[in-house]
Known about the structure:
Elements: H1 2-11, E1 15-19, E2 25-28, H2 30-36, H3 40-43, H4 48-52, H5 58-66, E3 75-76, E4 79-80, E5 86-87, E6 89-97, E7 103-112, H6 114-136, E8 142-145, E9 150-154, H7 156-162, H8 166-170, H9 174-178, H10 186-198
Antiparallel strand pairs: 1-2, 1-7, 3-6, 4-5, 6-7, 8-9
Amino acid sequence: ERNFLNTLVEDTPTIILGYHPDGTGTFINQAGERLTGFSQGDILGRNCWTLLFPEQESHTIWKHFINAKEDDQEFEIPLTGRNGSVHHIVWKVTRRTDDTGDTSEFYAFGTNLTLQRRVESELRQSERFANKITESSLAGIYIYDLDRKTKVYLNHQYTKLTGHTLASLNLLEQEQFRLLFHPDDWDLVEQHFVKILEADDKDIHEI
């Protein structure tokens, strides 16, 4: 059973960091060694906070890593590796008590979210870039959600051309919406919407 538990601890991708209440390191598993560049020998007997969290204030460390309760929520605090690289880690802390009920050791379990945070940042940048394009466009742009059957976005130029905001446009009945187009184009508009309803995401239909 002990060998099985050791295998779980060492093979898990979760970082496991052991430390005393004063911050002295007692353990780091292989996942933690690979990510941080610090070995078990580097951690043992040294202060984990100055080694792995040099940018964090002492009260932040105390609040989350020492004063944590078993039912506390996970928290995110970045970890700094030996080479200075910063990793976004979500932590959950548990404690081990001695025979008197006092805490003798803490274990912090960390999940590496660095890649996820990078992707999220790139998506936000992409969205900001797309928003700049749509808002700067001389063409009126609106987005209609087929599942919700409602318009979900208008750019500034669309409002400028039609006088409608997103809220006022969604209040229009079908016949009122048709009045935004010239009567000679009504059949063409209806044909266009039929094509859109049948189109794939990659299809583009001009009107």
